[in-house]
């Protein structure tokens, strides 16, 4: 999966696919944030950088992962993941990407990441500040649902 905004470099696909083919990972995400300097020098807006860092830290803690960028639009999935996850109940908006990773973590799939160069220019992202806030709140909502589901306090179709 590559978001169609020309932000991600598709030359990385064979490398990411290698982690799937060798059964090291079930999902591989392209991490745009190797370090703060390169992310910001590459054009990532400051508010996106800090929002991404904040949400990624929370998601890593709650989902038991150690990923550099939960919010990348570059992903490779093993077929088994897409066959098991009930993504038909997911949103038809940006938060879909968070939902599918939460579901994958819930079912114990191995999630990894690879560094990927990213390009930022005005047409490279359709998520503006308003949509970004909605996305961030939606992401926190998924985190809360995950916690409730894992603690067996409530059941969500998302995790069936």
Tally the helices: 6
Main sheet properties = 3 strands, mixed
Give the spatial strand order of the biggest sheet.
2-1-3
What general outline do the C-alpha atoms trace? globular
Structural class: mainly alpha
- Quote the average pLDDT: 91
Distance between the termini: 23 Å
Number of strands: 3
The count of domains is 1
Give a verbal description of the structure:
- The protein has 160 residues and is mainly alpha-helical.
- It has one domain (10-159).
- Helices cover 45% and strands 8% of the residues.
- It has helices spanning 13-21, 36-41, 46-63, 79-84, 96-106, 129-150; strands at 27-31, 75-77, 111-115.
Which features would summarize this protein structure in a list?
single chain; 160 residues; mainly alpha; 8% strand; globular
What are the SSEs and their pairings?
Layout: H1 13-21, E1 27-31, H2 36-41, H3 46-63, E2 75-77, H4 79-84, H5 96-106, E3 111-115, H6 129-150
Parallel strand pairs: 1-3
Antiparallel strand pairs: 1-2
Brief rundown of the structure:
With 160 residues, this protein is mainly α.
